[in-house]
Target: Thioesterase superfamily protein
Amino acid sequence: MTLATEPFSVRMDVRVYEIDPQLHLNGGFYVQYADHARFACVEAAGVSVQELIADGYGPVNLETVIRYHHELRGGDQVDVTCEWEWGDGKTYRVRHAFRLPDGTVAAEVAHVSGLLDLKARRLVADPREAWRARAGRPELLGLA
Model:
């Protein structure tokens, strides 16, 4: 598998309405933060998600795993990275590290994803090439 060497990263603020009764970030928001970072990474790579969908393709998550290491609380800032890993099949992996500004890893979110042909309702056989063909900066997608 090929792994990007410089991960894309987005800084986010933990908002008070995202915390749960234990006063830390609700688990569902980790997935939303990862989705936000991945969308921002795709856009920074020059891929238009609107054009991707208009062309009949949609990214899908097939599996999501969250590993919690350190709580995030309301008012915290967190940097969410986005690293893409490519193999030879129909799926690829996207890994996100959630780091506090001091470098402490708060969580990791990992996805097994694919690119769905929206008409055939089947995964694209070579998602790596489909993404590369649309990216102006393929290195952000681990496609250097």
Notes: The first helix runs from residue 27 to 44.
